Amino acid sequence: MTHSNSTTTLILGATSAMAEHSARLLATDGDALFLAARNPEDLAPMAEDLKVRGASAVTILPAFDALKPDTFADIINQAAPFDRVLIAHGSLPDQEDCQDSLSKIKQELQINFQSTVDLCTLCAEKFIDQGSGTLAVISSVAGLRGRQSNYIYGAAKGGLNTFLQGLRNRLQTKGIRVITLLPGFVDTPMTADIKKGPLFISAEQAGICIHKAITKSKSDIVYVPSFWRFIMWIIRSIPEPIFKRLKL
Amino acid sequence: MSTPTSWGNLPHTTATLLPVNRRKAAFPAVEDKVLPYGLGRSYGDSCLNDKGTLLLTRGMDRWISFDEETGIICCEAGVSLDEILRLASPKGWFLPVTPGTRFVTVGGAIANDVHGKNHHKAGSFSTCVLDFELLRSDQSRTLCSRSKNASLFHATIAGLGLTGLITFATLQLRRIVSPMIEVEQIRMHHLNDFFRLADESNHSHEYTVAWIDGLARGESVGSGIFIRGNHASEASDLSWKAKKTAAIPLNAPSWLLQKQSVKIFNALYSKKVKGERQAGSEHFLPFFYPLDAVDNWNRLYGKRGFYQYQCVVPRDGNRGPIHEILDRIANSGQASFLAVLKVFGDQKPEGLLSFARAGVTLAMDFPNRGPKTLKLMNELDEVVRQAGGALYPAKDARMNPEDFKMAYPALNTFTEKIDPAFSSSFWRRMHT
């Protein structure tokens, strides 16, 4: 399927609350959207919604499971050619459940790091062939400093941030944008068990930031919302001898 | 356990909050009693479920279809009326019935069978509902309409969320050619003026409502401003953007809404109309939703919260029960700045527990000042009871169970339709 007049965006992990709210705004812009998620049946109501909002076309792709890397190339080929990709899947594991289980750690790193690296690599190839493209990835502020309360998740996101930096560096001469999205606390089903403080924003607000980052802003690294740049600047400035004693 | 609130910030309750984000998901397995909770705009305890579970419906906020030719819109039950207006009004479609806030969900509007300024012409919210799906705790999904599963349809309209979880609904919108309302504001010097204007406007104006000075006594009882309007018939640009709203960030101190400050507010409000009559055109936002411009205005009443007393009583002449009620309120000196009066139409309500019915309705806020506030409302109850009137569960935190039974004669038929897994603080209070 080709959509000559509208921008085509592929969204991986499309049922995530942040991805869905970003997709709503892209739909309002008239984008053609390809949606992939682990449970494609959950995408049908979302696809109806996006059409009412103005999406020029919505296509549901076969099941996308971050634990099944063999399927990635096929999913991306089905959506290609596309102008933009938003990679939004992820899992927030319970730190204590996974810190002593090697198999659980491996699984979390596969979901939050390795699968995204694979997908970015495959999309980058497509964009290089096309000579243009925007690659936006939802990472996390948790990747900016390791903390005892979630360093497996944090390590995956930290690795991802470094990977995206390098990829950006490589692709910048080729007209391809690489955007690292760094949400702080967002009220989504993924954070349902965490007590909500004043720093939490809604998935809708996160979607507004992400949409702006993808469509308007020129920034490479986008905090969601922007006040996290300041918070993380402070957190990153704490010397390690002090930081290691803190309970964060 | 969390501490969800209703709009009046009372009573204080705890509940487990369980988001329901996907309409096709199975009914959640929960041990205790459940109640759907949307935007929490019910004033008292009808949207609360103390020590139970609240099914948060705001995550079910997807469109299903919108036919721009016919104005038929189908959406999930957690979609707000604000979102419907944002989508549909720029395309020339409007809500046929809207309450005084657009921050309610479609599910909540159905479950309370809300009404608006055009009740005398259009009836209440149910009239624009074509059908809806009800998910019950036995995992059954029932599409309810006037022709299919009609008994469940009529029980769920105004059913206070007790008959099951509404997952989606189909509504028939109405055409507009302009976002403007042609408005006329007319000064009223006593209650006779209100009834005269209501009679005179009954056919000529789609929207009528009156703002009443609740402190006016004696011969001035019922003085205030009568507001009437029609959708502008001249076509104009339908696009709009809500202005950034002001917000009340914290609960206000209790002295703020004392009698003196209400007096000052009422004097200023009544100055809004210069002379005896003022006409002009106004965007539908300030016309229908003046209070939506201030986020969390309910915090003005402080942390003790407030009651809203909304009753409907037969008119019975110009000196009937509504005069008696206004007189008692004025003499108590407890009135607040928000007081509205409207004559309802005489359409037969569609919900077994629908509130809006033929008669005159008064809605007035009372800051919670403890026993003396409750005493005043108990006195008003006597007048309502004598007159054979009714109180509105969506606004209530204190009505007497006997009065509820008297005012809602279809209660037994309704009770048979309740989903056994559902309950609410209001419902338990009516059955103790």
Overview of this protein structure:
The complex is a heterodimer of chains A (248) and B (432). Chain A is α/β, with parallel strands linked by helices. Chain A has a single domain (8-243), classed as NAD(P)-binding Rossmann-like Domain (Rossmann fold), CATH 3.40.50. Chain A is built from nine helices and nine strands. Chain A has helices at 17-28, 43-53, 72-79, 95-99, 102-130, 151-171, 203-215, 227-237, 240-243, and strands at 8-12, 32-36, 57-60, 84-87, 133-138, 176-183, 186-187, 201-202, 221-224. In chain A, the strands form two sheets. In chain A, strands 3-2-1-4-5-6-9 form a seven-stranded parallel β-sheet, with helices on both faces. Chain A has a two-stranded parallel sheet with strand order 7-8. In chain A, helix 6 (151-171) links the parallel strand 5 (133-138) and strand 6 (176-183). Chain A is globular and about 55 Å long. Chain A starts with 7 loop residues before the first strand and ends in a 5-residue tail after the last helix. Chain B contains twelve helices and 20 strands. The mean pLDDT of chain B is 94. Helix content of chain B is 24%, strand content 25%. Chain B has a domain at 180-399: Alpha-Beta Plaits (2-Layer Sandwich), CATH 3.30.70.2520. Chain B has 432 residues and is an alpha+beta fold. In chain B, the strands form five sheets. In chain B, strands 15-11-13-12-18-19-17-20 form an eight-stranded antiparallel β-sheet. In chain B, strands 4-5-9-7-8 form a five-stranded antiparallel β-sheet. A three-stranded parallel β-sheet of chain B has the order 1-3-2, with no helix packed on it. Chains A and B meet through helix 2 of A and strand 4 of B.
